[in-house]
Design brief:
Chain lengths: 279, 262
């Protein structure tokens, strides 16, 4: 499992996202993950081996490196990207659950042929009802994770700038020792780049949140002024939760009435215990 | 997520590009990305390890390296390639949006939609006209801008495109002035010139593609001005068909009326 695996998993979510969601996903993969893999990892590759302290004291180098870099930028970014992309899986799970329900409905209504089943798998879910809430939660969690990691970065590496020289006094270094960081300018450039893309992603997430809320309010306003006429896209209407519940209730009633008919025609069956409470 | 994944993403865009666009994409992948991955990365692999300064002063080497190489050539090229290839995704998104609209029309059972099945919509190649033309032209424009900006950044940062053998450094903590030696300067110069040359070829291809698109646009416009009846535009096919149908209906109505009156 690597970044390519994550890409495969999240491409599926892409289909059920809004347009802003798709742009966000492209920005994440191309400007953050790809830049991390092809460029940033090689910049930080020699961060420990080229970290030099002006001393011959054994152990001083390691201790000072550990003191100034509790967790490397690369690992922090990798964690950030993983945590920020995983809320989208909530949406994927919800969509899979809804598709499973649709398939069950098709089986119950007797439309369980391969063509309809494929249609269920391929069509795009409308972001309404409970899926809307799941989607909004995932966007909120993304925002939260982005903000938390940006704050952690700021706490660990104030100012987001990588300095050339750090003065270290940790044991076993004698007195104060000058330690020099490798490629500080290049690291600063990439830190700023990743910060900027992170901010762009935060803005995109906020825009998506606003868009979803506005759409929901607009739909509600339309709903109040025009009660549903039962028309709409084939699946969009068919699979609203009330319609589904109505269908299920209808089927249960039909099953119930056919059972009652059977019992009326064959009263002997009732001897085996009164199964039909409504008779 | 690496260059292979970018190749997969951009391969899809290839179908909706002009011939010059396809050549550009091939040049990008074979002469730039592939050269970067299989050759250039090895040349610059030991750039810091083998950067040697004539001093025993700890930290002097790090500081001098950082002073002369604020950002490595390899990273600059990687960023340049990423930025230059992403405007093509605008075109991919526009095409995907159009396809989605056609699929919606098809599913509604719209009579205007002339496709037999969804597979045909998926495979169809869109003509570069209308709003897609604007998107495509903008993407070429952005590509040009990014190429130019990065070439300028290169020139500005490294004072020309040549890698010197020796650099004199007097940044603290180096004592006085110290001689520092760059590893593989000639090989690096060769690859730098190669990448610059290919970048210039890509700029030329983009300019040619822009000219081609503009020429096609003006030609089409002048044809429309000369022959307003003939509308070869794909998007007006639906209106033409609808007009024909309306004409037929009104003709048949007239005939019926005439028939009744006689």
């Amino acid at each position: 499992m690597n970044w390519a695996g994550l890409y495969t998993v999240l491409s599926g979510v892409n289909r059920h996202s809004t347009s802003i969601g798709r742009i966000w996903l492209s920005v994440i993969f191309i400007f953050r993950i790809m830049v991390l893999v092809v460029a940033a990892e090689s910049v930080w590759g020699d961060e420990k081996s080229a970290f030099t302290c002006n001393t011959q004291q054994p152990g001083c180098n390691s201790v000072c490196y550990d003191h100034f870099f509790p967790i490397s930028h690369i690992r922090l970014w990798a964690l950030q990207l993983i945590l920020v992309t995983t809320p989208a899986l909530l949406v994927a799970m919800h969509v899979a659950y809804q598709q499973h329900q649709e398939k069950k409905l098709l089986v119950l209504t007797g439309h369980a042929d391969p063509k309809h089943m494929e249609e269920v798998k391929k069509h795009k879910m409308r972001i309404s009802g409970s899926l809307w809430w799941t989607y909004v939660c995932s966007v909120v969690f993304r925002l939260l994770f982005e903000a938390v990691f940006m704050y952690i970065f700021y706490m660990l590496y104030p100012g987001y700038q990588m300095v050339r020289l750090v003065k270290c006094e940790a044991y076993p270094c004698p007195n104060t020792v000058d330690c020099f960081i490798s490629r500080p300018t290049e690291k600063t450039i990439f830190t700023v780049f990743m910060l900027v893309t992170s901010s762009i992603c935060i803005v995109l997430n906020m825009a998506e949140l606003v868009y979803l809320v506005v759409r929901a309010c607009a739909r509600r306003g339309q709903h109040n002024s025009n009660p549903p006429s039962g028309k709409g896209s084939f699946y969009g209407h068919k699979l609203s939760s009330e319609y589904k519940q109505n269908e299920i209730n209808q089927l249960l009633t039909e099953q119930d009435s056919s059972l009652k008919d059977m019992l009326r025609r064959n009263p002997g069956l009732q001897e085996k215990g009164d199964r039909c409470s409504a008779c | 997520m690496d260059w292979g994944a970018l190749h997969t993403i951009l391969g899809g865009v290839n179908k909706h590009s002009t011939s010059i666009g396809k050549i550009w994409l091939t040049v990008l992948f074979i002469f730039r990305i592939m050269i970067l991955v299989v050759a250039a990365e090895r040349v610059w692999g030991d750039e810091q390890d083998d950067f040697v300064c004539n001093t025993l002063q700890p930290g002097c080497k790090n500081v001098c390296y950082d002073h002369f190489f604020p950002i490595s050539h390899i990273r600059l090229w990687a960023l340049q390639l990423i930025f230059v290839s992403t405007p093509a995704l605008l075109v991919a998104m526009h095409v995907a949006y159009r396809r989605h609209e056609k699929k919606r029309q098809f599913r509604k059972g719209d009579q205007k939609c002339e496709y037999k099945d969804i597979e045909e919509i998926r495979r169809q190649r869109f003509r570069i006209e209308g709003s897609l033309w604007w998107t495509y032209t903008s993407s070429i424009f952005f590509r040009l801008v990014f190429e130019a900006v990065f070439m300028y950044a290169f020139y500005f940062m490294y004072d020309g495109f040549r890698m010197p053998r020796l650099m004199k450094c007097n940044a603290w903590p180096c004592p006085n002035t110290v001689d520092c030696f760059v590893s593989r300067p000639t090989e690096k110069t060769v690859f730098t010139i190669f990448m610059i040359a290919v970048s210039s070829i890509c700029i030329l291809l983009n300019v040619a593609e822009l000219c081609y698109l503009l020429t096609k646009f003006f030609l089409r416009r002048s044809k429309k001005a000369v022959n307003p009846k003939h509308q070869p535009n794909h998007e007006n096919k639906e209106e033409t068909k609808q007009n024909e149908m309306n004409e037929l209906i009104s003709d048949s109505c007239q005939n019926t009326v005439i028939g009744f009156s006689s």
